[in-house]
Amino acid sequence: MAYTAILGAIGKGAVGAVNSIPPEVWKLLAAGGVAYMGYRLVKGTVDKAKYNNAVAAVGTDGKKGLAVEYASLLNAAFNNLGWGWFDGTDEDLVYEVATQMFKNGVDFQTVANMYKNVYGDELLQEIDAELDDGEKLKFFNILRGTNNL
Q1: Domains plus CATH for the chain?
Q2: Is the dihedral of CA 122, 96, 142, 136 positive or negative?
Q3: How many CB atoms lie within 10 A of CB 98?
Q4: Which tens digit of pLDDT belongs to each residue from 8-29?
Q5: Which GO terms describe its molecular function (predicted)?
């Protein structure tokens, strides 16, 4: 019923569409928004705790410490505003992290392992989802030192 009302309202223009959406649909949308914001808050808290645990386990010095930091920066680049799939990727930050990884001799697999430990996701899959083919090529060329730094 609500779906039909929304589709019917589309032809009435924006104001007509908004005014004709039943209150129960607005309540459902509000509840979904609150639930999503709660999820993001909890996820952010859990991710921060995992990051802190990883730092505690490997320290902040050395290549493993740098790998935790790089994993965190890459996650921040992929979740630019913290709102998931629609907030875009900060490609400049991704390239800067790759540059620092190369300069400090931190290999991709070490960062990928830390990324998996902290965020529960595969870094290579995240890169594949976040960057187009040209951006991936640039990222991996920077890691190999074959891109202009």
Answers
A1: 59-144 (1.10.220.10)
A2: positive
A3: 23
A4: 555 556 566 667 778 887 777 7
A5: calcium ion binding; calcium-dependent phospholipid binding
